[in-house]
Amino acid sequence: MQANLEVLEGLARRLDIHVPMDQFENEVQNRLKRLARNVKMAGFRPGKAPLSAVARQHGAEVRKEVLGETLQARFGEAVQTNQLKIAGYPSFEPRAGETAASEMVFSAYFEVYPEVKIGDLSAGKVRRPVVELGDADVAKTLEVLQKQRRTFETVDRAAALGDLVRFDFQGTVDGAPFDGGRGEDYSAVIGEGRLLQEFEQNLIGAKAGEAKGFDVTFPADYPAKDLAGKTAHFEVQMKEVQAPVLPAIDADFARALGVADGDVEKLRAEVKDNLAREVKRRVQAKLKEQAMELLLQAATLDLPKSLVAREAERLQKMTEADMQSRGVQTAKLSPDMFTGQAERRVRLGLILAEIVQANQLVAQPEQIRALVAEQAQSYENPEQVMQWYYQNPERMQEIESLVLEENVVAWVTGQAQVEDVATSFEELMGRA
């Protein structure tokens, strides 16, 4: 059997595969004979049906099977002979035109991986946040932990920001009630954003037993379209005001957060360690984002359409599954909606693969173990978590991918101009 390779437009290729009829028919007959030894057919004992009857009933299926396997085998041989790197899967079509009676000719259409060229990165700039954690950052984090464990107690005063209030309300638009505009014994913490900000602000200053009326304008993008942009009047009857009570930062508080002996200083040290890990993760994420953008700008390559189409379909299915898991009902999405995202992901994947291979940036066992240990540090029993990772090949593959990305980021920052930028913890977290 022979195969002829033709270069089409871009990354597209065509491979003509010639299949001699005598070899093909011999294989079909051999399989039918093997099948006849055990096949069950009406009117015959198992294995006793004549070959002609077996061929009538199973011949088409066997011929399709033999042809498919033959084309795949010959395609694989041609790929090795021509040292091709196939992107996606080939499609086989009978070749149009006259062919000899002694053979079948099929054309395999496919794409090859592109040549990836990485341009000069020396002019590229990367801003690296540098964060110095201090006692104030630890104190703010402890305040957050206190608020998460707060309780509320009834007070005899006007409601203020942060209070838990209980009230009845009735809303109208142009004098008429509307769906969702009435509630009894409704509770909310002022300032947490469960209610419209304008509504919350009007609750401030009201005491238990007082009634209050005010107008609220719904945002133009309000989810309920019949209320968007309209002004409603609300009548509110305040029933109860409760003030927040924060727990003291003491031994009980420390024990509640996992410090067995209740040592508050140990708690502060653990909080600082956790913040340091979060800082490292955030800084690495920002470096990665900038490094990837530099690579996208500096690299030149053609994109295999088959890989983009497959990635777009994968993103479509992932999105649909996610929406279904959250109970969101939607019409079937189109892969075309994800083409832009798919192109970016495929482009980056090809670029990263080229850099890893060209610069031997493979993930070393010690790097993998260090990252697993780092991931496990935030859990109560790190050794068990590390075993959990190592027992699952898929989880370890994810870790290896993260290490490869870190290696590429380190390579890029080694090529580009890196500027260290003093950054507060709040700025790094996007809260400043």
Task: Summarize the structure in words.
The chain has 3 domains: 110 residues, Trigger factor ribosome-binding domain (Alpha-Beta Plaits); 163 residues, Trigger factor, C-terminal domain (Trigger factor, domain 2, Orthogonal Bundle), CATH 1.10.3120.10; 95 residues, Chitinase A, domain 3 (Roll). The strands form 4 sheets. Strands 7, 8, 9, 10 and 11 form a 5-stranded antiparallel sheet that branches. It has a 4-stranded antiparallel sheet with strand order 1-2-4-3, with helices on both faces. A two-stranded antiparallel sheet has the order 5-12. The longest helix has 35 residues. The radius of gyration is 34 Å and the shape is elongated. Helix 1 crosses helix 2, helix 7 packs across helix 8 and helix 9 crosses helix 10. A hairpin with a 2-residue loop joins strand 8 and strand 9. It has 12 helices and 13 strands. By secondary structure, it is an alpha+beta fold.
Write the layout of secondary structure elements.
Blueprint (H helix, E strand, L loop, with lengths): L2 E5 L4 E9 H16 L14 H32 L3 E9 L8 E10 L4 E2 L6 E6 L4 H14 L2 E4 L9 E10 L2 E14 L7 H7 L7 E7 L13 E15 L5 H6 L7 H35 E2 L4 H21 L13 H21 L5 H12 L5 H9 L2 H23 L1 E6 L2 H4 L4
Helix pairs in contact: 1-2, 3-6, 6-11, 7-8, 9-10, 9-11
